[in-house]
Amino acid sequence: MATAVPSSSLRSRLIVPTLAFGGTLMALMQTVIVPLLPALPGDTGSSPGTVSWMLTATLLSGAVLNPVLGRAGDMYGRRRILVGALAVMTVGSALCAMTSDIGVLIAARALQGTAAAVVPLATGILRDELPPHRVGSAVALMSSTVGIGAAAGLPLASVVVQHADWHVLFRVTTGLGVFGVVLSWWVVPRSSTRTPGRFDVVGALLLTTGLVGVLLAVSKGGDWGWTSPVVPAVGAAGALVSVIWGRHQLRVREPLVDLRLAARRTVLLPHLAALVTGFAFYANWLATVQLVQAPEETGYGLGASALVASLCLLPGGLTMVVMSPVSARLSAARGARSTLVAGASVIAGAYVVRVFTSEQMWTIAAGATLCSVGTGLVYSALPTLVIQAVPAEQTAAATGLNVLMRTIGQALCSTVVTVVLTTVTSTLPTGAGGATYASLDAYRLVFALAAAAALVAAITAAAIPRAAPAAAETRDPLRHASRTSS
Fold first, then answer.
1. In this structure, what are the phi and psi dihedrals at residue 438, rounded to the nearest 5 degrees?
2. What is residue 182's predicted lDDT score, i.e. its pLDDT?
3. Structural domain boundaries enclosing 250
């Protein structure tokens, strides 16, 4: 088993902050692109739909690589794969800093998606290295790094957009990535835990093809034409390949994703909740930034700068950090299921309010912050539910699948929001520029869809059985103390 670092050592005290920093980098890479979206079509000579793939590519590669890297962590050691994922992410940042070619940018952003595996790998490391009574709060902190990364990333990107070339942003993230790689290599202890096996290459290819097909049909439908036969053909092909992937996972000896384990109710329902919550969470960030920046001539826009728009989300990001220990205590007292139901309900209520109060800065900021309160509760509870439902040796794989579902939800949200905001539009009068912008009804539709997704998450969470932890280590804390050094 893993080698426990003496509690008196500096590196032992830095394990949780280091892993949290890695999770913050992951969230940073997913959110820094958002304030750039309005300017990138002109800078790259591409359509808004194509530019949106700089966001979707990161989410999609993260969705695909989550189970792959989770499996690799079980086979070859979680520290090694964690450091490798951060290194590939850093290479992607460096490429983005050196080019304006949209094809290269999308490919580089796909490389940055490897960082999505940091959270499940870190969760497994925390379960191995910490005493059982500290695992819950540490996992909750890891989940809150989504808010930390967004709170730091959005203002950072906005300042760069206003005062410098956007390539500078990726130079900064490259430097942060290098620091994260070095710090993780030095602090995180090696693990001798190994799960023998081999990669399911066919499964990885099928998963990639299926997800790309479905998301491509949704994101490019406006460019191709929704009545074009190409759109349903590509979407149906992606769905069919996804079904084939599922059958393959059930038949192969060493699957990429253990669908039989995932089919258990105590595991399946948290995964489904992660999917729809991922959708609801991401709509908050994507829609708010663009809504606040819309010109005043639209009749609803505030004409704010990218920096002001990001500052509307800053309180929400900080709130997610504050909610981390609150969520851990609530889960310890009432159970993670109750925390999940409460968080999803708060998100749904916040979006209902936003449908009717999206024309003033303070109500927009308040609604966005309330969404983050619910998201902080949900994201802290989800990994706890999964950890309690699976054996210790499958922690990384199971939490990786949960993050996979969350990432798929975010990727779907990215494409759906893009479609809605580029389809439900209004054209300004000629005297006001004659430009076409998303209408207020488009944003209301986004918020209504996000509210529905959060409501589904709350109902799904309520159906999760109250079951005793399935992992032997959770039941027997003394196993942690009996590990041998490698």
1. -60, 140
2. 94
3. 200-255
